[in-house]
Design brief:
Elements lengths: L1 E4 L4 E4 L3 H4 L2 H34 L2 H20 L3
Antiparallel strand pairs: 1-2
Helix pairs in contact: 2-3
Length: 81
């Protein structure tokens, strides 16, 4: 149910399911899934970078390398289909 508001009244409009789940919704959900994969990859990469950076006492370098590694992991997860 979609709500349409104006200054004078509020109306509800019932749309058939074919209009609610159109092509636009599919593209949006794909983008959200790709963004989620990239976020997971970045989190993994940064965690690896922080761990190696703390062990080698060179945190600045390894956080940057972890971000790059995370971007690569996220891109790989996005393209696994």
């Amino acid at each position: 149910m979609i709500y349409s508001a104006s200054v004078r009244s509020i109306q509800t409009v019932d749309l058939p399911p074919s209009q609610i789940t159109g092509e636009y919704m599919t593209e949006e959900s794909e983008t959200a899934a790709n963004g989620k994969d990239m976020g997971v990859g970045m989190a993994i990469g940064i965690a690896i970078g922080v761990a190696i950076g703390a062990a080698t006492d060179n945190l600045g370098l390894w956080i940057a390398l972890g971000v790059a590694l995370g971007a690569a992991i996220g891109a790989g997860l996005s393209n696994r289909e």
